Amino acid sequence: MENILEKSDPELVELSLKNKEFYGFLIQKYQDKLKRYILRISGGVYNDADDILQDVFIKVYKNLNDYDPELKFSSWIYRITHNETISFLRKVNRKPTTYNFEIDAVKVKTIEEDLTLDQKLDNLKVKENLLRIISNLDKKYQDVVLLRYTEDKDYQEISDILKKPQGTVATLLRQAKGQLKEEITKNRHLFP
Amino acid sequence: MPEEKDKIKDKILNKIENDKISPTPRWCFVCKNYASWFVVILSGLIISLSLSLMIFLFISHDWDVYQLESGYLARHILVYTPFIWILIFLLFILLASFWFNKTKEGYKFVSFKTLIVSVLLVIILSSAIIITGVSSQLNDKFRSDVLGYKTFVRDKCDIWDEPEKGLLSGKVLEIVSDEEFILNDFNNNSWQVREENIKIIPPEFIVEKGGNIKMIGRLCSSCGNNIFIVNTIKPW
User: What would the pLDDT profile of A21-62 be if each residue is shown by its tens digit?
Assistant: First the structure.
């Protein structure tokens, strides 16, 4: 138990299958990230987020034997979270028109690198403008943009979370980046 | 905050404990995944089979006799298009792609290359089914054993089963003379066939006992029942 924090996720899965108390470590490790993710993709269902989170962890526990160690555990648990949240929203007939991007969560550095911009996007006003542009992107790009620029996932992880081929993820991101860059260039005065 | 985290963790672990929730056994997931692949493969086979039957029906069809049969090509195409096989073909494409996405690994292989490989496999398999004669045998089997099949899938037999329009086919039962033979049509009716200004296509074709043939001619009602005057004979 003393070196439990050094255990990898697949090891914790194996231990949880033998003793459910170990599952508590996985819950603790992921609950904050997943709750934030639920809030982001649901457009902020603050009252229901805990219920969705609980359903996610119960479902993950039931499906522990389905976890494939070739996949990152985080990708797998994000996939379940994504699907549970979408099915919850469908159940309550509440489909968000846009995702909830928080200003502090957006990985500005990754955007700067991905878009090879010559300007910095690091001041608050610029970040707010950037956020507005991201929020106005086509809905079809928002899943990948959110995972890439707030959850900091790479292409492989996004592909595994959304169960979309890497090529599709790359295409969606390329098109989203194109839109982003076009908007930033068009509104150069907002991005000094 | 750590207390809050523990609260959520404890709540979930308590629910697992109280509701006696346990992880689903691994074999269930393995079986589910195999079942999904099984449906995909089975669908692939049915897609190939339906495609082979569509191609078989198309290439074995005598498109040039539409003038004798109905007179209108568009009507003829409409009547003889095997819509049921087209429907099955499309339905199983949808089913295969649905279950392919349901497999654990499927999404990794969704690409243009996979699509091309799948299409090639279906074409190869369909060709094999046609070349080995399986599609023809299956069509015959469906015609004889499946109720209503003939209503939905009309084939060459139906074109050549219209003696009143001058089209008749079947198996030669007996050669009576140089100009007369007995024929059993595919509905098992016996016909007395008399030749008149006969044209055999191809000319080297010989009408023999036991051979299947198709004929153009006319009914001779005044001569008696089931008497057909033939002017063109072709091998089946």
Answer: 999 999 999 999 999 999 988 877 778 889 999 999 999 999
Q: Which of B11, B29, B109 sits opposite A66 (nearest CB)?
A: B29
Q: Taking CB atoms and an 8 Å limit, are B12 and A27 in contact across chains?
A: yes
Nearest to B104 among A32, A68, A165 (CB): A68
Residues in chain B, overall count: 236
| SS3 state at A152 | coil
A49-62 helix and A23-41 helix, angle to the nearest 10 degrees = 130
Chain A residue numbers with beta carbons less than 8 Å from the beta carbon of B104 are 68
Domain count, chain B: 2
State the best of B8, B14, B36, B104 to mutate against chain A, taking most chain A CBs within 10 Å. B8
ipTM greater than cut 0.90 = no
Contact B111/A at CB under 8 A: yes
Highest CATH level, class, for A108-190: mainly alpha
Q: Hey, are the CB atoms on B8 and A66 less than 8 Å from each other?
A: no
Check whether residue B119 and residue B194 sit in a common domain.
no
CATH topology of domain A8-91: Rna Polymerase Sigma Factor; Chain: A (1.10.1740)
pTM (2 d.p.): 0.80
B201: closest CA among B186, B193, B213?
A: B213
Last residue of a domain, one of B156, B178, B206: B156
Say if residue B134 is in the same domain as residue B177: no
A153-191 pLDDT, tens per residue?
A: 999 999 999 999 999 999 999 999 888 888 888 877 776
Q: How many beta-carbon pairs under 8 angstroms link A with B?
A: 68
